[in-house]
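User: Thanks for the earlier help. One more: Phosphoglycerol geranylgeranyltransferase. Can you show the sequence and predicted structure together?

Assistant: Of course, both are below.
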Amino acid sequence: GKTESALNAAIEKRGALFAVLLDPDTSDDTALLKAGSMAAENGADLLLVGGSFMGNFKLPDQVAALKKEVSLPVVLFPGGASQVVPGFDAVLFITLVSGRNPNYLIDEQVRGGVLIRSLGMEAIPTAYELINSGKPTAVEYISNTSPIPADKPKLSMVHSIAAELMGMRYVYLEAGSGAELPVPVEHIAYTRKATQMKIITGGGIREPETAHARVAAGAQIIVTGTLWEKVKDPVLLQEFAASIHVKG
Ligand code: 1GP
């Protein structure tokens, strides 16, 4: 698809990409636009929109307004089929491969797939691996799955190999939103060695150095979300971008 090709070309050019995750559950009609524009103006390459829940009926209008304003890809990162709404450039079509809950292995995909197809939306097949990050996270609780132990990076690797053989092209190594600790670099390095998939990682990344270390380990898209809820700092955004754009 067009968005996936553009992301792959940008990864080739810059080494890795800086993604900002925007909270879709905003009652303030312009909050998504403001946060997205600020990220776009200060070095972000990609805007993700998603969360465990979405209860915002105005989201399609807010996404349309954001798309008018920024030239970056705006990609849906859904927590389930009910979150598929129009207006996005693409959707991460996620399978929670680290879990053993059939709801997130096939049910949500069957429900969401028909919606995505009827919208004509581009889907990027993405394996999703939840990795233990200290305290239990919302995604662990809501998905009713156990995360991969932090000290077992080879377990991530074997899930990544299976996902690649199933045809997935992206893998999201996830610590969980607001995680105490980010995904350990060994998990990224093992998946990098064993597969060609593009590696997205996020959860608990609060410092540019933490982002840079994950790019050095082989990640190609670094996601930050929670940090920007409190910190509205263009300079910090730029520092993140610089730490991630290793090829400039
Ligand atoms: C969550 O990986 C993302 O899915 C981002 O996590 O909110 O902790 O930055 P944070």
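User: Great, one quick takeaway?

Assistant: The longest strand covers residues 122-130.
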